[in-house]
Amino acid sequence: QGIVVDFTNGNIIVKFSNGLLRPVERHHWQSDEYPVVAISQYPLCLAWALTIHKIQGATMPRAEMDLGNSIFEYGQTYVALSRIQSLDGLYLSAFRSDRIRANPKVRAFYESIPAIDMTPKSVIENVATSSCGNEAEVGEAVIDSTCDDSSIKKINFDTYKYAGDISTKKITVVKKPTHAVTLDLFLAGKTIDEIAVERGLKKQTIEDHLVENVPHEGIPYQTFMTEVIYGYIVDAFQVLGKDIPLKVVKDNLPREVSYLQIKMVRKMIR
């Protein structure tokens, strides 16, 4: 994250939160599929453009929020606050508690639910009262008519007699991490799709397993991307920061760049 402080020689000078000044050059991307189509832009994402709808599902380390007159719908405050990772990175440019509203239908439903005492003692008493009735008396009669006290004593005696023959040694079972299992299958020559079918997992889960194994000599980044794509992604992280939401990074890269490629590069340069 940073602030634009100057313009020079066709470049934008950005001062980042760590105090570093860096010129941001214009990047040019050309479509491999349609050579006549090209994009020329500065790889910057304006902070004011990051509306709630644009970053749905993403989280950020820092954010400035207007929780005042800008609120116009139920639940907006919750959605906005859930975007921030920590209150340490939250700056409120405005705040009005009277603008924070709950949906009246939801509130009415909540208030219509009777208060329930869920303490363990209360739950046990309720269950006993509602379901045990005559069953308790029947249970006592069955026990009295079928159980011989001498038989119970014999069972207890046998338990103590043979208890010493039972091994109490703990057996430690080492379970292989799931991402390591995926790595073994990948190194065996299976594709991501084949591994997903064999393990009964989603393709994205298998991709995340491979990213978790990075760096590893068996999965070089050249297997998943060209040097050009790798350079694009590295440049994007250098400009935008390594902790920026992945969607923001992808929006500033050519369309053919995948989330798997972005995740791999981020893991490598961290």
From TrEMBL:
Q: Which InterPro entries match?
A: Helicase_HTH (IPR029491), P-loop_NTPase (IPR027417), PIF1_helicase (IPR051055)
Q: Where is the Helicase Helix-turn-helix domain?
A: 178-266
Q: Which PANTHER family would you find in this protein's record? A: ATP-DEPENDENT DNA HELICASE
Task: Report the protein name in the record.
Answer: Helicase Helix-turn-helix domain-containing protein
* Species in which this protein is naturally found: viral metagenome
Question: According to the entry, what is the taxonomic lineage of the organism?
Answer: unclassified sequences, metagenomes, organismal metagenomes
